[in-house]
Structures are given as C-alpha cells and as structure tokens.
Amino acid sequence: MGYFLQQLVNGLTLGAIYALIAIGYTMVYGIVGMINFAHGEIFMIGAFISLIFFVVLGVLGVTWLPLALLLVLLLAMALTAVYGWAVERIAYRPLRGSFRLAPLISAIGMSIFLQNYVLLVQGAHEKTLPPMITGGFELMQSGGFMVSVSWLQLIIVGVTLLLMVVFTAVIQLTPLGRAQRATEQDMTMAALLGIDVDRTISLTFVIGAALAAVAGLMVTLQYGVIDFFIGFLAGVKAFTAAVLGGIGSLPGAVLGGLLIGLIEALWSGYCPSEYKDVAVYAVLILVLMFRPTGLLGRPEVEKV
Amino acid sequence: MRWTVRIFLVATFAALSAGAYAQDIKIATVGPMTGSNAEVGVQMRRGAEMAVKDINAHGGVLGHKLALTVGDDACDPKQAVSVANQLANAGVVFVAGHYCSSTSIPASAVYADSNILQITPASTNPALTDDAAAKGWINVFRVCGRDDSQGKIAGNYIAARFKGKPVAVIDDKSTYGKGLADETIKAMAVHGMRPAVHDSINAGDSDFSALISKMKAANVKAIYFGGYYREAGLIVRQSKEQELNAVLMGGDALVTTDLWKITGEAGTGTLMTFPPDPRNLAAARSVVKEFKAANYDPEGYTLYTYAAIQVFAEAARKAHSIKVADLSKTMKANRFRTVIGTIGFNAKGDVIGPDYVVYDWKDGTYAELKK
Questions:
Q1: In Å, what is the CA distance from B101 to each residue of B20, B125, B177, B306?
Q2: Contact (CB, 8 A) for B249 and B195
Q3: Would you place residue B1 in the very low, low, confident or very high pLDDT band (cuts 50, 70, 90)?
Q4: What contacts A78, CB < 8 A, 6 or more positions away?
Q5: Which residue from A101, B82, B245, B251 has the highest number of Cβ atoms inside 10 Å of its Cβ?
Q6: Mutation test of the interface with chain A: which of B172, B207, B258, B261, choosing the one with the most A Cβ atoms within 10 A?
C-alpha cells in the first residue's frame, strides 16, 4: 500500500510537468488548428532562462529563497513569453491562410532552429543547478515502506492544478477568453465582428509559452540538469498527453499529462521499467481506438 | 549578383585553407563533441591537440607534420558511420576514437574497408576487438581495458563488500552500459550473488523516481549502474531525495567532474572502476605540467587519447611506414612508452597494460580506494 502510494506521488509529479507543457500544445491547437512543434523548445528555453536567472540572482546576493523563486518565475515567464510571441510572429503568422502543412513544416524548422540556437549560445554541455528546495515530510508508514513527499513535489502538483483552474477560468469568463473561443470557432467571422484575431492568437502563444516557462523552472528545480535537447523528449511526451486528453481541451491536457506520468511510474514500479514508454503508447493507441478525439475532446465538426 | 560572387570566393578560400598541405599526415580524433557526453569529447579533443602539438614540435612523424581533424559523432551510431566515411574520403590514415562503444563498433567497419588504423582511447565493449579479430580485420586497437575485466573487478568488489545484502543492477540499454552490467552480474554470480532488482532505464530520461522507489522497497544497499555519467548523477541525486541509502557504483564513463556537478554532496561515496590514474605516473609528469600550464586538468580520457596518438607516431617511426598492415604488425610486436605507462597489444588489438582499480568520489574529486 505504502509503495503504491509512493509511486502515485512520483507519477503525479512527473505528470504535472507534462501537463504544464501539454496545455501550450492544446491551446494553440484549439485556436489555430496547428501543432506547434516548437513548443518543446520553448519549454527548454524557459528552463535555461530560469537557470540563468538563478545564477544571476545568486551573484546579486538575493538568497532569500521565496523571493528568488518568485523573481525567477516572473522573469522566466516574461522572457519565455517573448520567445513564444516571436515564434508566432516570425514563423506562423505569415503562413496563416496558406495550405495546412505549411505552418507545420515551419514549426519543425523553428524547433530545429531554437535547439541549435541554444546549442550555439550555451554549448552542448549540460547545465546543472544544486538542489535548492530540499526536505519534505513523511506521509505515512505502511507495509514497512515510508512514503515520502518532498516540498518541491507538492509545489509542482499544486502549481499545475492552480494554473489549470486559472486558465480555464480565463477562457470561460474573460473577454480575452471569449475572443479566443470565437476565433477558435470561425476566424473570419470573429474578425468581421471586430475581434482582433492576430492579437488573440498572439496572446494564446504568449500564455502557452509562459506556462512552458513554469514547467521549465520546475524541471530545473526538480532534476537540476538541463541541456539543449530536453525540449524534444518532453515535447513528445507532452504532445502525447495533449492527444490522450483530447487535443484542444485544457482540462484534457492536464488529465492526459497526469495519466501519462502515472502510467510511467506505476509501470516502472511493478514491471520492467525499460518498457514504460511502450506502456504509455499502448494506452494512447487503445484510447484513440475507442475515443478518437481523446478522453475529454469534442468530436470535430468539419467546417464547411 | 555581387553576393553570389562573394559567397563563391569565400567558399573557395575556405575550401583551400581547410585542406591540409599534401605532405602532412592526416589523422583524426572522433568523439561526442556535442550531446550529453560532450564533456568527454572535450577530453579527447584536448588530449589529441596536445599530442599533435608535441609530436610536431619534435619533428613530426617520418619527416612529416601531423594534421589533426576533430570529428563529432555525438555518440550516435549513424553519425559515427557518416563521420568515418568523411574521414576516409579526406585521406585520413589514423583515427583516435571513438568514445561510445556503440559508435566505435560500426565505425570500425568503415575504417577496416578504408585501411585506416583505429585506436580507441575509451570504447571498452569486448565486441569491438573480438568481432574485428573474428572478421580478420587488423586495424582495430584500444588503449583502454575491456568491460569483461572491468565488470569482473566491479562484481568482485560488490560481492565482497555487500555480501548477503540486496543489490540492484541497472543499465541504460546502450552497447557499453548493458555489456558492462551483464559482465558485472556474471562476476557476482560466481560469488553466488544475484541482483535483487535488475532493470533498465532510457538514456536521456530525467525522472528515475519510480525506479528508486522500487529499489527502496527492495531495501537495496548498492546499485551497480552500467551507463553514462548524466543518468548516474541523476540516480544518485534522486536517491538522496527519497532517502534511499545505497552506494552507486559505475564504470569508467563516470570519470568526469561533471558527475559531481549533478550529484553535489550526495555523490560522496560513489564508486567507479577505472585504470590507475595516469596523471600520477612519472611518464606523464611533463605532459600533465604542460596541460596545467594551459589551464586544463587532463582528467578522464585526455591522456588516453594522447597515448593513442603517441602509439601511432611511435609505431610509424618503428615501421618506417604509415600503411595499416605495417603499423598493425609493429604495434603487436613492440611495447610503447606512453603517458599512460608502457603498453603493448595482443593479437586481437587489446591493450596489455594495467588492470582496473576501484575509485571513490569525495569533495568533488575522485581517488583510488585504499585497499
């Protein structure tokens, strides 16, 4: 029992990080109907920016942890958002209205470009951060197994759920959200009704990038090792999460992320962990066979 | 139009200056200059550059200067083969490389076809020289040891120190990592020891918490890890977080101070097998001083790469030839004084030299374990 609970904790933490990245995929797909393959790279850039600011703050002598964390969080979100905005402005907007595959290829190009940009600027070497938030508490002792939860794990899961609630509310309740939903349904009609479609799409990319920056910060804190290539693996997993949950649906992305994290942890816990990715994709295929739009996705209505 | 002309001129100029002078002897070192093992790539590049500089300063080889090319295989087998083909086309006669066994082995086929001598400073998988010998290739050598002897040392050590206690054996599914883990299990089995947890991870993953919980549930006291330093470091770091008090032991791929950057203090007591540190040898003293003067500590495979090039230069002098058949015959018949000691080669191309010893990590550096 204790062991199972520990694996649950492990899986939820990992899943929360996938979920944060998956939200960015799902929001962009929802609104422009394209898969932003450069999103994994945006996450990687968020991780690098977080790490750089930790080092800078350390040099400046900001050592009070909550303040340092808050500053890094805000700065990383702001700067990564600029990257998200720029990617949309440079690589996708000029291609809006061209054939469907064009922005997809452009996205792959952007992904390769960003990866190599970081490789050239930061080097191939991995960058490390010593553990900053240490400690935790013992949840319970059961069956001779001590279930331990670290503060950082709590923060990661808490922040993810909080951001999901906030952004679901933004989409449901605010004028920006209304504009996003309108743009999602029919871009031309939304524009005719006075919605600035370009601005709405830009803001969607900005929000997605800011969330990816949060994920980047979490990964930097939790694992402490980042390099220019982490965006690829994380991006693939997060994209899978978005598809599993139903691409276009925000709670779906979070559900998908958490599920993938749980499958990985529980499979590793009870079966040979070398096959954990096989397990993840087997579940994905099963779900797509019975629910082609994912767990929480709406069936796509072909627009005429 | 003007731009096209300019680009053409620049390209022509670049092509001219890149091609070495015809009388130079072209050699290369190939390793992971990028990717997650890039730290070792730096060691190889540094070692090779210094060796070429020193040899050229003493008049080169057979009256010719050595011209060094640095190739990048990123520890990717496909990239290794394409780099090997490029080097073959460029007329390279000797390659000090590669690093990962999974790249050295496929590249060795290209070198065998193109009559290029290959001396790897670091690839320890037995199949490299075993397969080459079975196929009748004469061009494959290594100045490092083999995983069967490395795994034996590790297995014996674990069996002696953790007798009767549960241990885990983890590998990263790479040619090197899995080969090493399997050899270690074999050596443990001789002492009647079986791993309580035997599992694999995916290289490139960052989260090993589920696996660590599994080892914690099995009350594991030691983890043998066949794989590279990034994952080893992450396992140590995450074990500490989950309060799994187990000692991690690894192979020669952990020989880089980058391991400590990942683990921090949690890395204290981490063990690894590596040949006796060449930096302490009298034969290496002047070269180590030269490296230190250039503000570089020749750790890990730096001196092994240096030694590989020394062996090539010395063999060429003795054979009065840079043909692979002559070099190979000379290398197997003679012993060579290098910065890693006096070494020779057996019929398969494996090194005859010092055996592995166990090191442990403390305060950001590693030292031979006192017997």
A1: 29, 6, 9, 19
A2: no
A3: very low
A4: A210
A5: B251
A6: B207
Q: Please determine, looking at this structure, whether the domain spanning B148-274 carries the CATH number 3.40.50.2300.
A: yes
Could you tell me the two tokens for B278?
């060449």
Which helix (H) or strand (E) segment holds residue B142: the answer is strand B140-142
Contact assessment for residue B298 and residue B287, using Cβ atoms and an 8 Å cutoff = yes
Domain of residue A178: give its range.
2-231
Residue A10 lies in a domain: yes
Contacts of A227 in chain B (CB under 8 A): 36
Separation between Cα atoms, residue B359 and residue B194, nearest integer Å: 23
Between CA B4 and CA B7 the distance in angstroms is 5
Torsion angles phi and psi, residue A217, rounded to 5: -65, -45
pTM here? 0.84
Fold of B2-145+280-352: Rossmann fold (3.40.50)
Q: DSSP per residue over B10-64, as a string? A: HHHHHHHHHSPPTTSEEEEEEE-SSSTTHHHHHHHHHHHHHHHHHHHHTT-BTTB
Residue A160: pLDDT above 80? Answer: yes
Q: What is the pLDDT of residues B263-306, one digit of tens each?
A: 989 999 999 998 888 888 888 999 999 999 999 999 889 999 99
The boundaries of every CATH 3.40.50.2300 domain in chain B are 2-145+280-352, 148-274
Question: Which residues from B are below 8 Å from A6, CB to CB?
Answer: 213, 216
Nearest by Cα to B104 from B87, B121, B86: B121
DSSP chain A: -HHHHHHHHHHHHHHHHHHHHHHHHHHHHHHHS---TTHHHHHHHHHHHHHHHHHHHHHHT---HHHHHHHHHHHHHHHHHHHHHHHIIIIIGGGTTS-THHHHHHHHHHHHHHHHHHHHHH-SSPEE----S--EEEEEEETTEEEEEEHHHHHHHHHHHHHHHHHHHHHHHSHHHHHHHHHHH-HHHHHHTT--HHHHHHHHHHHHHHHHHHHHHHHHHHH-EE-TTHHHHHHHHHHHHHHHH-TT-HHHHHHHHHHHHHHHHHHHHHS-GGGHHHHHHHHHHHHHHH-TT-SSPPPPPPP-
**Residue from A273, A275, A276, A277 whose CB has the most chain B CBs within 10 Å, to mutate:** A273
Look at chain A and report how many structural domains it folds into.
1
Q: What is the largest CA-CA distance in chain A?
A: 66
**pLDDT tens-digit readout, A107-153:** 999 999 999 999 889 887 788 988 888 888 887 777 778 888 899 99
ipTM score: 0.89
**How far A186 CA lies from chain B's nearest CA (Å)?**
40
Q: Which pair of structure tokens corresponds to residue A192? A: 């005719």
In this complex, which of A148, A224, A273 lies closest to B210 when CB atoms are compared? Answer: A273
Residue A257 structure tokens: 């992320």
Closest CA to A248 of A186, A299, A196, A303: A299
Question: Are B204 and A145 a contacting pair at CB < 8 A?
Answer: no
CA angle A118–A123–A128, rounded 5-degree value = 95
* Interface of chain B toward chain A, CB-CB under 8 angstroms: 33-36, 38-39, 173, 199-202, 204-207, 209-211, 213-214, 216-217, 230, 233-234, 237-238, 241-243, 258, 261-262, 264
